[in-house]
Amino acid sequence: MIRHIQNTFRMRHFGLMTRPKKEGQYVVTRNGEMATLCHSAFQTDWFGELGISPQTIVELGPFDGGDISRFQAQYPNCRCVAVEADPERAAIVLVNTKGTEIEVVEAAACDANGPINWFSSEINGKADAQGSVYQHSDKYKSRFSFVNQRDATTVNGRRLADLCAELEITSIDLLHMDIEGAEYLALKGLGELRPKMIFLEMRSGMFESGISITDTESLLADMGYELALDLRVDRLYLHNSVNYNPSP
Questions:
Q1: Which residue, 54, 150, 151, 152, is most buried by CB atoms nearer than 10 A?
Q2: Quick one: 214 exposed, middle or buried, by C-beta within 10 A (0-12, 13-18, 19+)?
Q3: CA–CA separation, 217 vs 223, rounded Å?
């Protein structure tokens, strides 16, 4: 109840009127074939409510491409880039975004360039869960006992600012990420880039990273971000450069 009241005041403060979506799935048609894709709680109506006409959206950890697909469908003139570290998941995203203008990059967004450990996850032998640069903690294993983390491999780690420079991205309207404990690394890798909005998943104590949610919150505050919505696991942050119109 307290969280709900706090979110109501936050939304009013920032001029947000549309409640978050309920996480779930939706059906799309790709090249004559039906596909069921996942979506987060992010509401695309928030762009308009904040006076943002999105030109560039970057998603880290797109899983099946569901969110980046709905962003591109609603804003066809917006550049949409999906960055996925897991080779199996990247292949799935490529299939699900085929025929669109969405750019798919296979890399682990972090704070340095070079090979980085990667732990793929599976359910019943299939890559139906998200991988991570960190091993699962005992807390994760207890809560999600049906998810099996494979032995470590290496993937291409990219400092996010350098990756954006390579892609000629100079500004980001939305950074949408679900990267299983690596949020701090990705944020550190932004360099001087400051996305107008950041929507990310943060879980406490789920990964053997040594980085707490408090660490990530402090980093975001230092970077000029303010919490706009706290949805327990998912959070929306706005940069202080956003000229929002708060309700009286």
A1: 54
A2: exposed
A3: 10
DSSP helix/strand/coil, 83 = strand
Cα–Cα dist 159/157, whole Å = 7
Token pair 């939304």 in the structure block, residue: 11
pLDDT digits (tens, 9 = 90+) for 199-224: 999 999 999 999 999 999 999 999 99
* Alpha carbon distance 108, 114 (integer Å): 10
Per-residue pLDDT tens for 115-136? 999 999 999 999 899 999 999 9
Identify the helix (H) or strand (E) that includes residue 46. helix 45-49
Helix or strand run (H / E) with residue 105: strand 103-106
pTM score:
0.95
- Residue identified by tokens 């706005």 is 238
3-state secondary structure of 3: helix
